Amino acid sequence: MKGLSKKSEMNTAQWLEKGCKELKEVTSNPLFESQYLLSSVLNVPLTALHFKENQILSPDSQKEFLKKIQLRKKGFPIAYITGEKEFFKRRFYVGAGVFIPRPETEGLMEAALNLQEPLKGVDFGSGSGCLALSLTLERPDSRFIAVESDSLAYTYLKKNHREWKLNQKVKLLNQDVHLLTLEQVELFLRGKPNVIVANPPYVDQNDEQLEGFVKQFEPPAALFSDQEGLAHIYSWFSKAMELLQSGGVYIFELGYSQNKKVRNFLDEKNQLKSYKIYKDLQGWDRVAVCTKK
Asked: What whole-number distance in Å separates Cα of residue 273 and Cα of residue 293?
Protein backbone atom coordinates (compact mmCIF):
# COMPACT_ATOMS: atom_id res chain seq x y z
CA MET A 1 0.00 0.00 0.00
CA LYS A 2 2.96 2.35 0.38
CA GLY A 3 3.10 2.70 -3.37
CA LEU A 4 -0.47 3.93 -3.46
CA SER A 5 0.28 6.91 -1.24
CA LYS A 6 2.69 8.27 -3.87
CA LYS A 7 -0.02 8.41 -6.54
CA SER A 8 -1.36 11.80 -5.47
CA GLU A 9 -2.62 12.63 -8.96
CA MET A 10 -4.63 9.43 -9.40
CA ASN A 11 -8.30 9.88 -10.18
CA THR A 12 -11.23 8.03 -8.62
CA ALA A 13 -11.25 5.25 -11.23
CA GLN A 14 -7.54 4.58 -10.63
CA TRP A 15 -7.99 4.51 -6.86
CA LEU A 16 -10.81 2.03 -7.27
CA GLU A 17 -8.60 -0.19 -9.40
CA LYS A 18 -5.78 -0.06 -6.86
CA GLY A 19 -8.15 -0.77 -3.99
CA CYS A 20 -9.61 -3.69 -5.89
CA LYS A 21 -6.17 -5.25 -6.34
CA GLU A 22 -5.42 -4.91 -2.64
CA LEU A 23 -8.70 -6.50 -1.58
CA LYS A 24 -8.40 -9.57 -3.80
CA GLU A 25 -6.58 -11.21 -0.91
CA VAL A 26 -9.51 -10.95 1.49
CA THR A 27 -12.79 -10.94 -0.42
CA SER A 28 -14.52 -12.59 -3.35
CA ASN A 29 -15.96 -9.24 -4.42
CA PRO A 30 -13.04 -6.81 -4.30
CA LEU A 31 -14.40 -4.30 -6.81
CA PHE A 32 -17.69 -3.82 -4.98
CA GLU A 33 -15.94 -3.49 -1.62
CA SER A 34 -13.47 -0.98 -3.05
CA GLN A 35 -16.36 1.01 -4.46
CA TYR A 36 -18.28 0.82 -1.19
CA LEU A 37 -15.33 2.04 0.86
CA LEU A 38 -14.55 4.88 -1.53
CA SER A 39 -18.19 5.98 -1.65
CA SER A 40 -18.11 6.21 2.16
CA VAL A 41 -14.95 8.33 1.98
CA LEU A 42 -16.50 10.70 -0.55
CA ASN A 43 -19.89 10.55 1.19
CA VAL A 44 -21.72 9.83 -2.05
CA PRO A 45 -24.01 6.96 -3.13
CA LEU A 46 -22.38 4.03 -4.90
CA THR A 47 -24.19 4.96 -8.09
CA ALA A 48 -22.56 8.41 -8.07
CA LEU A 49 -19.01 7.07 -8.28
CA HIS A 50 -19.39 6.59 -12.03
CA PHE A 51 -19.83 10.34 -12.44
CA LYS A 52 -16.68 11.05 -10.44
CA GLU A 53 -14.22 8.72 -12.18
CA ASN A 54 -12.01 11.60 -13.30
CA GLN A 55 -12.05 13.42 -9.96
CA ILE A 56 -8.68 13.73 -8.21
CA LEU A 57 -8.94 12.77 -4.56
CA SER A 58 -7.84 15.25 -1.93
CA PRO A 59 -4.88 14.22 0.27
CA ASP A 60 -7.25 13.65 3.20
CA SER A 61 -9.53 11.45 1.11
CA GLN A 62 -6.55 9.45 -0.11
CA LYS A 63 -5.38 8.83 3.47
CA GLU A 64 -8.86 7.86 4.62
CA PHE A 65 -9.33 5.44 1.72
CA LEU A 66 -5.93 3.84 2.36
CA LYS A 67 -6.77 3.45 6.03
CA LYS A 68 -10.07 1.76 5.24
CA ILE A 69 -8.45 -0.59 2.73
CA GLN A 70 -5.89 -1.59 5.34
CA LEU A 71 -8.58 -2.27 7.94
CA ARG A 72 -10.49 -4.41 5.48
CA LYS A 73 -7.32 -6.35 4.67
CA LYS A 74 -7.03 -7.15 8.37
CA GLY A 75 -10.51 -8.66 8.26
CA PHE A 76 -12.54 -5.86 9.81
CA PRO A 77 -16.19 -6.00 8.66
CA ILE A 78 -17.04 -3.31 6.15
CA ALA A 79 -19.90 -2.12 8.34
CA TYR A 80 -17.50 -1.41 11.20
CA ILE A 81 -15.12 0.40 8.85
CA THR A 82 -17.80 2.68 7.38
CA GLY A 83 -19.73 2.95 10.64
CA GLU A 84 -23.08 2.06 9.12
CA LYS A 85 -25.17 -0.80 7.76
CA GLU A 86 -28.28 -0.78 5.58
CA PHE A 87 -31.32 -2.60 6.92
CA PHE A 88 -34.78 -2.55 5.38
CA LYS A 89 -34.07 0.46 3.14
CA ARG A 90 -32.44 2.54 5.89
CA ARG A 91 -28.92 3.01 7.24
CA PHE A 92 -28.10 2.41 10.88
CA TYR A 93 -25.00 3.37 12.82
CA VAL A 94 -22.91 0.38 13.87
CA GLY A 95 -19.41 -0.20 15.19
CA ALA A 96 -17.28 -2.58 17.21
CA GLY A 97 -19.36 -3.92 20.06
CA VAL A 98 -22.73 -4.06 18.33
CA PHE A 99 -24.09 -6.89 16.19
CA ILE A 100 -24.22 -6.06 12.47
CA PRO A 101 -27.77 -6.35 11.05
CA ARG A 102 -28.19 -9.15 8.50
CA PRO A 103 -30.52 -9.44 5.49
CA GLU A 104 -32.01 -12.60 7.03
CA THR A 105 -33.41 -10.54 9.88
CA GLU A 106 -35.54 -8.56 7.46
CA GLY A 107 -37.77 -11.64 7.50
CA LEU A 108 -38.74 -10.69 11.06
CA MET A 109 -39.70 -7.25 9.79
CA GLU A 110 -41.93 -8.69 7.09
CA ALA A 111 -43.62 -11.08 9.52
CA ALA A 112 -44.34 -8.27 11.99
CA LEU A 113 -45.62 -5.96 9.27
CA ASN A 114 -48.13 -8.63 8.27
CA LEU A 115 -49.94 -7.95 11.55
CA GLN A 116 -52.85 -5.67 10.81
CA GLU A 117 -53.43 -3.88 14.11
CA PRO A 118 -51.25 -1.01 15.46
CA LEU A 119 -48.12 -2.57 16.89
CA LYS A 120 -47.50 -2.35 20.63
CA GLY A 121 -44.20 -4.17 20.77
CA VAL A 122 -41.01 -5.10 22.52
CA ASP A 123 -37.67 -5.81 20.84
CA PHE A 124 -35.57 -8.24 22.88
CA GLY A 125 -31.79 -7.74 22.56
CA SER A 126 -32.26 -4.74 20.32
CA GLY A 127 -28.58 -4.10 19.47
CA SER A 128 -28.47 -1.28 16.90
CA GLY A 129 -32.24 -0.94 17.18
CA CYS A 130 -32.80 -1.86 13.55
CA LEU A 131 -35.95 -3.91 14.29
CA ALA A 132 -37.78 -1.67 16.76
CA LEU A 133 -36.87 1.53 14.94
CA SER A 134 -37.62 0.19 11.45
CA LEU A 135 -40.98 -1.22 12.50
CA THR A 136 -41.96 2.09 14.08
CA LEU A 137 -40.86 4.01 11.00
CA GLU A 138 -42.83 1.66 8.76
CA ARG A 139 -45.88 1.75 11.01
CA PRO A 140 -46.09 5.25 12.54
CA ASP A 141 -49.06 4.21 14.68
CA SER A 142 -46.76 1.83 16.60
CA ARG A 143 -45.02 2.03 19.97
CA PHE A 144 -42.01 -0.09 20.89
CA ILE A 145 -39.71 -0.81 23.79
CA ALA A 146 -36.14 -1.66 22.72
CA VAL A 147 -34.27 -3.69 25.35
CA GLU A 148 -30.46 -4.04 25.21
CA SER A 149 -28.27 -5.15 28.10
CA ASP A 150 -24.80 -4.52 26.67
CA SER A 151 -23.59 -0.98 27.42
CA LEU A 152 -21.52 -0.63 24.24
CA ALA A 153 -24.29 -1.85 21.96
CA TYR A 154 -26.65 0.45 23.85
CA THR A 155 -24.63 3.49 22.74
CA TYR A 156 -25.42 2.63 19.11
CA LEU A 157 -29.06 2.02 19.97
CA LYS A 158 -29.23 5.51 21.48
CA LYS A 159 -27.44 7.03 18.49
CA ASN A 160 -29.87 5.47 16.00
CA HIS A 161 -32.80 6.39 18.22
CA ARG A 162 -31.72 10.04 18.09
CA GLU A 163 -31.04 9.89 14.35
CA TRP A 164 -34.58 8.76 13.54
CA LYS A 165 -36.21 11.08 16.11
CA LEU A 166 -38.42 8.43 17.70
CA ASN A 167 -38.18 9.53 21.32
CA GLN A 168 -41.96 9.63 21.80
CA LYS A 169 -42.64 6.29 20.14
CA VAL A 170 -39.71 4.06 21.12
CA LYS A 171 -38.52 3.67 24.70
CA LEU A 172 -34.98 2.39 25.33
CA LEU A 173 -34.04 0.15 28.25
CA ASN A 174 -30.47 -0.77 29.11
CA GLN A 175 -31.16 -4.00 30.98
CA ASP A 176 -31.31 -7.78 30.70
CA VAL A 177 -34.36 -9.16 28.90
CA HIS A 178 -35.01 -11.57 31.77
CA LEU A 179 -35.38 -8.64 34.22
CA LEU A 180 -38.02 -6.87 32.16
CA THR A 181 -41.26 -6.52 34.11
CA LEU A 182 -44.82 -6.38 32.89
CA GLU A 183 -45.23 -3.11 34.79
CA GLN A 184 -42.40 -1.50 32.76
CA VAL A 185 -43.92 -2.70 29.53
CA GLU A 186 -47.52 -1.74 30.24
CA LEU A 187 -46.57 1.72 31.47
CA PHE A 188 -45.14 2.75 28.10
CA LEU A 189 -47.25 0.62 25.74
CA ARG A 190 -50.45 1.38 27.65
CA GLY A 191 -51.21 -2.30 27.94
CA LYS A 192 -49.64 -5.65 27.23
CA PRO A 193 -47.67 -5.99 23.98
CA ASN A 194 -49.34 -7.58 20.97
CA VAL A 195 -45.98 -8.39 19.38
CA ILE A 196 -42.47 -9.18 20.58
CA VAL A 197 -39.56 -9.50 18.14
CA ALA A 198 -36.12 -10.93 18.81
CA ASN A 199 -32.93 -11.93 17.07
CA PRO A 200 -31.43 -13.82 20.01
CA PRO A 201 -27.87 -15.13 20.27
CA TYR A 202 -28.19 -18.60 18.74
CA VAL A 203 -24.75 -19.71 17.57
CA ASP A 204 -23.18 -22.79 19.10
CA GLN A 205 -19.62 -22.11 20.34
CA ASN A 206 -18.51 -25.19 18.36
CA ASP A 207 -20.18 -24.20 15.10
CA GLU A 208 -17.53 -24.77 12.44
CA GLN A 209 -19.62 -23.00 9.80
CA LEU A 210 -19.27 -19.61 11.50
CA GLU A 211 -17.03 -17.35 9.45
CA GLY A 212 -13.76 -16.55 11.17
CA PHE A 213 -14.03 -12.77 10.85
CA VAL A 214 -17.47 -12.85 12.47
CA LYS A 215 -16.13 -14.73 15.47
CA GLN A 216 -13.08 -12.46 15.62
CA PHE A 217 -14.76 -9.07 15.41
CA GLU A 218 -18.44 -9.22 16.41
CA PRO A 219 -19.54 -9.23 20.07
CA PRO A 220 -19.66 -12.79 21.49
CA ALA A 221 -22.65 -11.95 23.69
CA ALA A 222 -24.72 -11.21 20.59
CA LEU A 223 -23.59 -14.39 18.83
CA PHE A 224 -23.23 -17.32 21.18
CA SER A 225 -25.64 -19.17 23.40
CA ASP A 226 -25.35 -22.32 25.53
CA GLN A 227 -27.18 -25.61 24.92
CA GLU A 228 -25.88 -25.86 21.35
CA GLY A 229 -26.98 -22.28 20.69
CA LEU A 230 -30.53 -22.76 21.96
CA ALA A 231 -30.43 -21.38 25.53
CA HIS A 232 -31.57 -17.85 24.63
CA ILE A 233 -34.19 -19.14 22.20
CA TYR A 234 -35.70 -21.17 25.03
CA SER A 235 -35.46 -18.58 27.82
CA TRP A 236 -36.56 -15.60 25.71
CA PHE A 237 -39.58 -17.59 24.54
CA SER A 238 -40.64 -18.03 28.16
CA LYS A 239 -40.22 -14.31 28.81
CA ALA A 240 -42.24 -13.44 25.72
CA MET A 241 -45.11 -15.69 26.81
CA GLU A 242 -45.04 -13.99 30.22
CA LEU A 243 -45.44 -10.51 28.71
CA LEU A 244 -47.64 -10.98 25.64
CA GLN A 245 -51.37 -10.40 25.61
CA SER A 246 -53.67 -13.24 24.61
CA GLY A 247 -53.45 -13.58 20.82
CA GLY A 248 -50.12 -11.74 20.82
CA VAL A 249 -47.31 -12.85 18.53
CA TYR A 250 -43.69 -13.66 19.33
CA ILE A 251 -41.43 -13.53 16.26
CA PHE A 252 -37.85 -14.71 16.54
CA GLU A 253 -34.91 -15.75 14.40
CA LEU A 254 -33.27 -19.17 14.61
CA GLY A 255 -30.10 -20.74 13.26
CA TYR A 256 -29.84 -22.61 9.97
CA SER A 257 -29.56 -26.02 11.63
CA GLN A 258 -31.95 -25.55 14.57
CA ASN A 259 -35.25 -26.26 12.82
CA LYS A 260 -35.92 -29.71 14.30
CA LYS A 261 -35.04 -28.83 17.90
CA VAL A 262 -36.98 -25.57 17.80
CA ARG A 263 -40.04 -27.33 16.37
CA ASN A 264 -39.84 -29.99 19.07
CA PHE A 265 -39.58 -27.26 21.70
CA LEU A 266 -42.56 -25.31 20.34
CA ASP A 267 -44.67 -28.46 19.92
CA GLU A 268 -44.51 -28.97 23.67
CA LYS A 269 -45.62 -25.47 24.63
CA ASN A 270 -49.25 -25.35 25.70
CA GLN A 271 -49.18 -21.52 25.80
CA LEU A 272 -49.30 -21.47 22.00
CA LYS A 273 -52.35 -21.29 19.81
CA SER A 274 -50.20 -21.93 16.74
CA TYR A 275 -46.78 -21.34 15.21
CA LYS A 276 -45.18 -21.30 11.79
CA ILE A 277 -41.54 -21.21 10.69
CA TYR A 278 -40.61 -19.35 7.50
CA LYS A 279 -37.58 -19.88 5.27
CA ASP A 280 -34.99 -17.28 4.29
CA LEU A 281 -33.82 -16.62 0.73
CA GLN A 282 -31.27 -19.44 0.99
CA GLY A 283 -34.00 -21.92 1.87
CA TRP A 284 -33.11 -22.27 5.57
CA ASP A 285 -35.84 -22.21 8.21
CA ARG A 286 -35.15 -18.83 9.77
CA VAL A 287 -38.12 -16.99 11.32
CA ALA A 288 -40.58 -18.46 13.82
CA VAL A 289 -43.96 -16.77 14.30
CA CYS A 290 -45.67 -17.95 17.48
CA THR A 291 -49.21 -16.93 18.47
CA LYS A 292 -50.09 -17.07 22.16
CA LYS A 293 -53.43 -18.56 23.23
From this structure: 5
